[in-house]
Design goal:
By secondary structure, the protein is α+β, with helices and mostly antiparallel strands. It is 36% helix and 28% strand. It has 2 domains: 102 residues, Archaeosine Trna-guanine Transglycosylase, Chain: A, domain 4 (Roll), CATH 2.30.130; 92 residues, no CATH class. The protein starts with a strand and ends with a strand.
């Protein structure tokens, strides 16, 4: 079934299903977009910025916004959790913001159980990453529990450990667990991942 989605063009962000990202909204048209998304229950898709704003055929991930904080001047801090993988079909409007009709794109996370060794490697990398970036033990335990879902595991590995926008986009576009694992293996290993100055280096082998 086709439905409507609002577009939030950003070059620096890619949304993944089941992953939550924060955004600071300050442009009036996007403040209106978030308010309209809440009012009419329309998801917001994160897409790259295109000069011609023609997105027909683009695959992206969308989710419903949630407001964390509102400011007196109208600015807001929101978060979006990816829930819909979309193929954009036909533009509905481009003012004050862009909206499209979309069809949902399915993914296969059931087959491919023979990748358990690779999944375990990604899980161990993320647990080591969390020792630096999640100092609270309870947070680390909650985070570790979410990694039992292969889809969340692969998407968080991409979000936190992959630097290349192209590799992240390839992960978002891939339709099966096997495809995603192969992309991650090429993107991460064998290599070292720096956690920043004076911090330990993660080694993927």
């Amino acid at each position: 079934m086709n439905d409507k989605v609002f577009l939030f063009p950003l070059n620096s962000s890619i949304l993944f299903k089941k992953v939550t990202l924060p955004f600071h909204i300050f442009e009036p048209r996007y403040i209106q977009m978030v308010n309209d998304a809440l009012r009419y229950n329309v998801p917001i898709a994160i897409v790259p910025i295109l000069s011609d704003s023609i997105y027909e055929g683009t695959i992206c991930v969308a989710g419903h916004p949630h407001i964390m904080a509102s400011h007196p001047d109208g600015r807001m801090d929101i978060y979006i959790t990816g829930s819909h993988k979309c193929r954009l079909l036909k533009k509905q409007s481009d003012s004050p913001y862009i909206s499209y009709r979309y069809s949902e794109v399915s993914e296969d996370f059931i087959s491919g159980d023979f990748y358990e060794m690779e999944l375990e490697s990604f899980k161990n990398l993320l647990k080591r990453w969390s020792l630096t970036f999640l100092p609270d033990k309870n947070q680390r335990e909650i985070f570790a529990n979410t990694l039992e879902d292969p889809e969340i595991l692969l998407n968080y590995t991409t979000l936190f450990l992959v630097d290349s926008y192209q590799d992240k986009n390839s992960m978002m576009m891939a339709a099966t667990k096997g495809e995603k694992i192969k992309i991650l293996m090429q993107a991460l290993g064998p290599k070292e991942i720096s956690l920043g100055p004076y911090l330990p280096v993660l080694k993927f082998k």
